[in-house]
Amino acid sequence: MTEQNRIEVLEKKIQSLELLLAQQQKSSVMLVRRDLELSRALEKNRTLDAEKSKFISVAAHQLRTPLSGVRWALEQIIGNTESQLLPDDRVLLMKALETNIRLIRIVNEMLDVDRIETNRSKVVKQNVSMHDLLINVMIEFSSLAENSGVALNYCNNLTGSSDISTDKDKVRAIMQNLIENAIKYTPRGGAVEVCIVNTDTDLVFSVTDTGIGIPIQQQPSIFKKFFRASNAMKVQTDGSGVGMYIVNELAKNLGATVSFTSSEGKGTTFTVAFPHSPFQS
Amino acid sequence: MKSAVGIGVNEDSYSSGVEAAQAAFDAIGEKPALTIVFASVEYAQEDVIRGVRSVAPDTLLVGSSSSGEITGEGPVKRHSVVVMMIAGDEIVVHAAVGKHIQENAHQAGSDVAQQVLDAYGGEKPKFFMMFPDVLAGNGADIVRGVKTVLGDTFPIVGGASGDDFQFKQTFQYLNDEVYSGSVVGVGFSGNIVFGVGVKHGWTPISLPRKVTKAEGSVVHEIDGLPAISIYKEYFGEEEAKQLESETLAKLAITYPLGIRHEESNEYLIRDPLTVDEHGSITCAAEIPEGSEVQLMIGSREEAIDMAEHAAKNALEQLDGATPQAVVIFNCIARQKLFGINSGDEIERIMSVLGPMVPMAGFYTYGEQAPLDGEVRDIKKCNSQFHNETVVIVVLGEGNSV
What are phi and psi of A165, to 5 degrees? Predict the structure, then answer.
């Protein structure tokens, strides 16, 4: 190849590289603009999320007082043994009270979410017997289990004390959510087993049910706010979808970890592990 | 050595300060040697400090206003006061303030460092933590000022104060006083070991361009054109119009300028803060005339991986000591990059350091740390001013004084 030919080849290569560079620059401008678009959308999303949380907080606070007033009034009427209520009216009032209590519960869940999101969920520690607390919560749900035709069993695998220093109300809320969910999503004739065990590092309690399970593709979303599994919505139409979010956030607050295994149509086990020496802050 | 963190989210400034300090004090259970405070500018700053001081009146207090407070549980989702208390009989801490950054940033840096050095009787501490106001002046100049006193190869860490992404006025705290346009610094010595992780993960998207005219932190021209041209070219017409009416930082913080640094594996990043009518850009620290800059872009995946990497680096430097406290200085750009998922980054960091270790930090307008977090080979320790970076400082108990 002559010198002239080599120069021509090199010039062509340079031209092609310059073309590639120009294309790359054009692409990078397009990429930045698209990225910018997405960033703006993300920021808008963040603002909307904050506004939505604020709205829920205000709405929940505003709703709680009148709802409590309605509950008080209904309880007074129903509880008044001297009233001349017709049996059918009494049934209707009982239904109204039941609905009212359910609404109050949903509002309280929203307030719990608000407290968690605004870091107002303070940890107040005391010495808690997890065994006693678990028994207590199970008694609370025994009539729901009975009415639902679900066996509620306890297995105590403790080899030592179940006392830990933690926030009793928060642990109770975790237990309530898990046990109630297990009963609600287990068909009549099924069983819910609540177990407690201590390991070298943790005190662990688990709730195992023979319920509907969580579809595998939806399992990663189970701790997301307002998430309800598709099969759960078919079984129970009402539900705010914040229960598992609250469980997970409260557990994090306490330095505990929540895990689960589930098989659709067969059942679910939720496990909560509390370290023996949780967070100092 | 012990530490604990408290959060205050009360609507009242004083009460929020009390709440945060009381929670930290209750958890630590003894008189702290040092109280570090990070607070939103939504609060009356003096009232916050009064509140904190009402709980811990006789201890050394340092801190800064922020653009978002962080604890081990993640970024606090609303305005708050975060207080970290550090206790230990054999920890020696001294703090001071350097004022008038606007008049002379370098002098403010050397002033604060000199006062701290004097408090140690001329013996250098193990490392120096600082909270400068970079809305008032060149952040890199402040770092250089500190280095003139503490040495060219000295570990400096810190975060530039924020103001909830308003870019108007930031505040620095020292004991009972609240300053602005200043730098508060604190030296750490005694029975303490530390590790530093420094990473960003931003990648160049443009070809290198030459800074043809610059003075300090103001870049006038790039490739002979007004500096703002680079943003107009990349952002397009519609966004470019907003550049004239909005604070540049609000629009361009996730697209900073990067400078190659021969001593670092990563680009040194400069945040664009404001633009003037001539198209000159003021950055959080200088970009020297003649240097080559590139427009940078971030990705969440890369940023989160780098945060984990930084946490691992910091932990390794403890040489097996247990982390007792973590302080994080995290650029506000990273919060914007992650959006509502900014907790993922903190979660990843805590998964490396351990969920139990108390952590406090804030979203900053600039970070200070040695390049690549090099603090072991002190001859290679080159502390610099960074942007878009996460700086993780892990503290542990040493074997002896």
Answer: -90, 110
A32, A46, A118: residue with CB nearest B255: A32
Whether the pLDDT of residue B211 is over 50: the answer is: yes
Tens-digit pLDDT profile for residues B21-50: 999 999 998 999 999 999 999 999 999 999
Cα dihedral sign, A222-A225-A230-A234: positive
Residue B273 CB coordination number (10 Å): 23
The structure's pTM equals 0.79
Q: Are B205 and A45 an interchain contact pair (Cβ–Cβ within 8 Å)?
A: no
Q: Chain A closest CA to B355's CA: distance in Å?
A: 8
> Residue B383 is encoded by which pair of tokens?
């502390």
Residue at B145: amino acid letter? G
Write the burial class of residue B58 (CB in 10 Å: 0-12 exposed, 13-18 middle, 19+ buried).
exposed
Query: Above 0.85 for ipTM, yes or no?
Result: no
Q: How far is A73 from chain B (nearest CA, A)?
A: 34
In this structure, the strands spanning B127-132 and B156-159 are parallel
Q: For chain A, how are helix, strand and coil distributed in percent, rounded to 5?
A: 60, 15, 25
pLDDT tens digits along A24-68: 999 999 999 998 888 888 888 888 888 888 888 888 888 888 999
Residue A13 structure tokens = 């290569």
Under 8 Å between Cβ of B381 and B155: yes
Contact B257, B293 (CB under 8 A): yes
Q: What is the pLDDT of residue A277?
A: 61
Asked whether A193 and A214 are in contact (CB, 8 A), the reply is no
- Beta-strand pair A257-263/B390-397: unpaired
User: Do B184 and B135 form a contact (C-beta atoms < 8 A)?
Assistant: no
Task: Please give the pLDDT value at position A278.
Answer: 45
DSSP B187: E
* Residues B356, A279: C-beta atoms closer than 8 Å: yes
pLDDT over 70 percentage in chain A = 97
